[in-house]
Amino acid sequence: MTDNILQVKNLTKKIGSKTIVDNVSFAVQKGEIFGLLGPNGAGKTTIIRMIVGLINRTGGKVSINGHDLDTDFNGALNEVGAIVENPEFYGYMSGYKNLIHYKRMSRNEISDEKLKETIELVKLDHAIQQKVKTYSLGMRQRLGVAQAILHSPSLLILDEPTNGLDPSGIREFRDHLRMLANNGVSVLVSSHLLSEMQLMCDRFAIIEKGKLIHIESMSDTTNLEETSAREVTFTVNDCEKAVKIVEQNITESIIKNSEKQFTISIDYQSIAAINKLLVQSDIQVFEISSVKKTLEDRFMEITNSAKEVVKQ
Ligand SMILES: Nc1ncnc2c1ncn2[C@@H]1O[C@H](COP(=O)(O)OP(=O)(O)OP(=O)(O)O)[C@@H](O)[C@H]1O
Ligand SMILES: [Mg+2]
């Protein structure tokens, strides 16, 4: 058995002449919360709908806990619990009755014990006998999760699950997903909010115009900060001379801002090296200031470029 609960390879969707999802590959490990982050229209829902077999793939492979969607569709889908569109409940029935109704319709044997356990897990035990029409959005969301995990799936898929939740609801939901992941469930979740993905996920993929352009791992974010390039401005007494010296030693292009300042895009270690070079060449360095390009900046660039395309 593999530790990759979900494996997506070269997933592609074309509608007419338009490529909506373009060769997307990623894997989700056991107990991992994996995000799909992208602006409106990026293709997140289309990716999810193909994974759960709601729409056909134009190309690519999907395997869920070792079951290939092409050769073992039922086996694969048995491993999945999903909320793709808003889950529909009967408002006039209690949460409990809704779950019982779902349990009766389910292909899988679900014991009463399992039902009780699931209700406790999503922390709805106090309200489960109330009618669903009296539930807050957060409670409905949790009932949706309960329904999705009732048959003990190894993968839970949620499309924009925090839409409409208030900040405390979002926080609660996040803690909730973490608890499920700690219990060994893998989670695939989509959102268009970077901050949310950073708080919620172990890793997330940035989707832009149907393409997966980057996978961010939260555990090596600090590492990334150290190695990623940043814009660094040096203030010196003789910019002309300084630029000449730096040019001989570095391949990155230099922007001369004024008689006293130049800016260069370099990594953390190179800042010290350039400073040493300048000082050794008798240049006076008055100030070194750096502006880090954060993931937020990069994501803003992506979403802005996506908006420009929409405007055209
Ligand atoms: N049935 C369809 N026919 C034609 N185009 C479609 C169809 N379904 C989706 N699209 C297009 O595919 C692109 C991706 O849509 P999708 O719903 O997957 O994006 P999304 O990332 O989920 O966006 P959102 O954040 O708004 O939910 C959009 O440009 C959309 O208009
Ligand atoms: Mg969507």
Strand content: 25-35%
Task: State the total count of DSSP E strands.
Answer: 14
Q: What series of H and E elements makes up the topology?
A: EEEHEEHEHHHEHEHEEHEHEEHEH
Q: Can you count the helices? A: 11
| Unreliable spans | none
Given helix and strand content, the structural type is: alpha/beta
- In angstroms, what is the radius of gyration? 25 Å
Oligomer: single chain
Could you give the distance between the termini?
A: 48 Å
How would you describe this structure to a colleague?
The protein is elongated. The strands form three sheets. It has a six-stranded mixed sheet, with helices on both faces. It has helices spanning 44-51, 73-78, 95-105, 112-121, 137-149, 167-182, 194-200, 221-227, 239-249, 268-280, 295-311, and strands at 4-15, 18-29, 33-37, 59-64, 67-68, 80-83, 155-158, 186-191, 203-208, 211-217, 230-236, 254-256, 261-266, 285-292. The protein is of the alpha/beta class and 312 residues long. A hairpin with a 2-residue loop joins strand 4 and strand 5. The protein has eleven helices and 14 strands. It is 38% helix and 28% strand. The protein binds adenosine-5'-triphosphate and magnesium ion. Magnesium ion is lined by residues 44-45, 159.
Brief summary:
The protein is of the alpha/beta class and 312 residues long.
Features of this protein?
312 residues; binds magnesium ion; six-stranded mixed β-sheet; binds adenosine-5'-triphosphate; 28% strand
